[in-house]
Amino acid sequence: MTTVASYRHAGSEARRTAALRAVREHLANDPEPVRRVLCEISTHRAAGYEIEAAIATLDGAQAEVDKYRPRQLDQLAVYMPSNVLLYSYVLYLLVPSLYSSRVAFRPSSRVGSQTARLHEILAPVHGLPVDLTGVSQRAFLRDHVHSADAVIFTGAYHNAEQIRSQLFPGQLLLYFGGGVNPFVVHPGADLAHTARDAVTIRVHNSGQDCLGPDLFCVHEDLMAGFTAALLDELALLRYGSYDDPEADYGPLVYDGAMEEAIQFLARNRQRIVHGGRVDLGESRMEPTIVVGEEVTARTQVPEFFAPVFHVVPYRDPHRLAATLTTGQFTEKAMGSSVYGDAPELAAALSRRTTVTVNTSLLSIDDGNAPFGGHGRMANYVTDGHEMWAEPLLVSKAVAEHAPEAGAR
Asked: How do residues 177-206 score in pLDDT, each as one tens digit?
């Protein structure tokens, strides 16, 4: 394994590039210590996905920085999310360390222990000035955020807005949130393939992932066929513990998300066509299909961090396109998937979101490329003067929007 000592006397840029390469080799050759930490809050399969995504992102890190040429930051402050810990560690800490003199990060209180142990494993490998601070939010704001050139926050929109209100003009804030991520099934779709993709992305990490679709819009002529295909796929799923390599889903670890999903199921109990059973003692929720009414701009679409399939019919693709590009869908515009022959619908959605056609958002996940949409509650970057709701990549945002040194 490459160690810090092997590149101690190299130049700073070469040393940091070597540090990322050392982490990459460590994850590829000895992933089990990291996997054990991840499997405390993620399924074994989701942990494997994270490790693969982290390795791929580290492989592309130098090319990403060479492409966008972000300016050098003196300090970056990062509020870490409560899921996808390894992937976030690479995306928000390691890759930005190539152009940040120092990175300070604060774990989410929900997963503070797991984040600290992940850092304990990887910090000796990279030896970079990436520092975990276990202080209170107030102290982190005072001691690290206020002096940072750029701040990264992943989580709830209202929490991001609270942080934004306390920053100084000239400080860059990158907000990574979530979206409705509508999953559209139109005539021409291969229903077996579509249902398989739907189950894979909605049940990924037991539904606890921001890419999971919160709304499945199915053409009314396909409702029966798609639901039947979903049932076929769900029948194949296996429940198990997070360290079980054969388990497709496991217990939920985020109490608030489970409570919100239960409330939705209780309000819509008459519309449940599959599943709906919950074991509170085990924090287990069965994958559940709820069939609702056609969505309108006024329809309230909850964000699920649980394996809930909220399926609604539609007839007119033009009307659906108009609905999914207005109101709350505009504010929460992040990603969309369109299955079937609907080029005009896909084109309309692409003006607001990242769109996939006949494949899911998981298939295009690329840690070295911008991702997201043009919804402010989904993602934005601001310098305290202007705000841009756009697909985000940290290096690109720093290159395009960070003020010049000394501008603050």
From this structure: 999 999 999 999 999 999 999 999 999 999
Q: Which residue matches tokens 């396109």?
A: 321
How does pLDDT run across 297-350, given as a tens digit for each residue? 888 898 999 999 999 999 999 999 999 999 889 999 999 999 999 999 999 999
Determine contact, residues 181/336, Cβ cutoff 8 Å: yes
Q: Are residues 272 and 382 in the same domain?
A: no
Cβ-contact 151, 103 below 8 angstroms: no
Residues 329 and 248 occupy one common structural domain: yes
The Cα diameter of the chain in Å comes to: 68
Inside any domain, residue 371: no
Q: Which helix (H) or strand (E) holds 185?
A: strand 183-185
| Structural domain contains residue 26 | yes
Whether residue 352 lies inside any domain: the answer is yes
Q: What CATH number is attached to the domain comprising 270?
A: 3.40.309.10
Looking at the whole model, is its pTM more than 0.85?
A: yes
Structure tokens belonging to residue 126 = 């990279």
379: nearest Cα among 106, 146, 173, 94: 173
Q: How many domains does the chain have?
A: 2
| 333 shares a domain with 393 | no
Enclosing H/E stretch for 164: helix 157-164
Strand spans (E) along 37-160: 73-79, 100-106, 130-132, 150-154
The CATH code of the domain that includes 91 is 3.40.605.10
CA-to-CA distance for 142 and 330, rounded, in angstroms?
34
Say how far apart CA 248 and CA 171 lie, in whole Å.
42
DSSP code string of 94-116: ITGGGSEEEEEEE--GGGHHHHH
SS3 content of the chain, % helix, strand, coil (to 5): 45, 15, 40
* 20: in domain: yes
Q: Domain range for residue 93?
A: 4-177+378-401
